[in-house]
Amino acid sequence: MRGGCRMNVKIKPNAINGELKSIPSKSLLHRAIILSGISKDRETKLENVNTISKDIEATLTCMEKLGAKIKVEGDSIRIASLGNIKKSKVELHCGESGTTLRLLLPLVSTFSKTATVDCSEGLRKRPIRELIETLEESGLYFEEKEFSIKISGNVNSDFFRISGDISSQYVSGLLLLSSLLDQKSSIYLTTKLESRAYVNITIKVLRDFGIIFNELEEGVFEIYGGGETKYSRLKNIK
């Protein structure tokens, strides 16, 4: 295992419930919004959301552009999912939010034939190249400009290789993508995973949405995707 540790995580389909109470961190909220949006044909209520930062607003806006219906009600957010319609094209604005960019970049081709992701000057200077290269190897096509990235194509791979020490958000984005795929897929970390706590947050949210994990050893994630059938019966997540 060239320079990396091994980590096996098995993700299996299971019924989903859909009310998340007490959102303790911005990192968790990003992931909960995205999972709520990609849960097929259901509505999720996120409760006890005390503050909506600019980064969270960027994620909410991007999910709306992809087709989710979102309503903020006091300290709660209601999110009606994207459903089965794949758009012909979409334009997303990530602003300064690196989390929004890295978590959504692997997913957007699932919901739009072509997507253009606009970024601020500062965000385009942050690391993203390795994630793009990994996704290109999986079948996606990227056209990079100074402040935007255009994505097209379809994921046709069940194996993803990525480093663990540049950004844990690379790993989290690939985990979210893998949970959508119909087949079993694997994520292989070529270097030791840093910022493990943030990957744990991703795993927690996926578990909250009914996906079962078995972590066997370090360095490799094995994910059993379930496509549309995974995201059903959304109620009473606590």
UniProtKB/TrEMBL annotation:
Domain of life assignment: Bacteria
Enolpyruvate transferase domain location: 12-228
Keyword annotations of the record: Transferase
Coiled coil: none
InterPro entries assigned: Enolpyruvate_Tfrase_dom, Enolpyruvate_Tfrase_sf, RNA3'P_cycl/enolpyr_Trfase_a/b
GO terms of biological process kind: chorismate biosynthetic process
GO molecular-function term, one example from the UniProt record: 3-phosphoshikimate 1-carboxyvinyltransferase activity
Record protein name field: Enolpyruvate transferase domain-containing protein
